[in-house]
Fold:
Amino acid sequence: MNRRQFVHGMVAATAGVMALGRENLWAAAQATRAPRRSLMIGGRRVKAVDVHAHVTIPEATELLRGTPLARAGGGGGAAGAGQVMGPERLQTMDGYGVDVQALSINPFWYGADRDLSARLMDLQNDKLAAICAESKGRFVPLAAVALQHPDLAARQLEDAHRKYNMRGAAIGCSVDNAELSDARFDPFWAKAEELQMLIFMHPQNSAGLTGITNRVKGPGVLGNVIGNPLETTIALSHMIFDGTFDKFPALRLCGAHGGGYLPSYADRSDHGCLVFPEQCKGMNIKKHPTEYLKQIYVDSLVFTPEGLRHLVSVVGASHVMIGTDYPFPWVDAPVDHIVKTPGLTDADRAAIVGGTASRLLGITT
Structure:
């Protein structure tokens, strides 16, 4: 399935999902989809895992009715419709050769009060867990957490882990204009480290939050193309220079879109304080900034073999995982992108395709 076909069919395929009901979802998908690809690397069957796949929970619409989040929680157009769980998702996964998707909800709720946040996260995590439990191993959930209330988010992380055995959660790149390196978020990072949960970090409203709104007007989708990786770059850089990775050295954090621009120009981070030492007074980090990139996980959404080769050289093959950004049709062949990139060993390919994600998310291989 190419991108044009993917977008053209998405709304129509999704329109009947609400009437279909989840109990019939897998049967319908099984009846209509082509055989799933079976991937072999080095003579061994490898399970392909996509860590970057979006989903929305339609039942949240009713809960949000009459609240300030009513509009923020809705999706629009083909991509918005495609985030609702439907049989076309399995068809696309099978075409890609993806065995498992880790499902995440883009956090739109950072302006919600504590009570609404608690009810909304409970609902979304319950529904996420149910979808994944019914999927016969095709999906695993990344918990929704109310990071604007860090202590509550830490408790939600623990509840998701203990109640549903969730092994990860999804967050934005900043909260109410506060960087994730702010000490207010330490209780959340401490709990994530304690539970060894993978935290998938995805940018939100990037043009506004990075301050580039006026610079990215006009053609080219620049608010997304430039803004999304820029927001991730800023968030990760603060976590490095503000010492978050020193406080929580075992933290498992995955940056979407290949970790933004940071891996592409990382060495400049090592030289900034050498050139302008007066602007780094009081900074106390234990390693060179580039060394922290070996602690960060990223997805593979960098498009070209050379981009992937460079990304692996910076963060290591064991810290790269497949990311498709489903249902947004950025890629045609995410698994082939890994398998056909020259210079990677079979062990590298197996780790990127699914070995690392399976280990982090508790997926049986």
Observations:
- The chain has one domain: 48-361.
- The domain at 48-361 is CATH 3.20.20.140 (TIM Barrel).
- The chain has 18 helices and 13 strands.
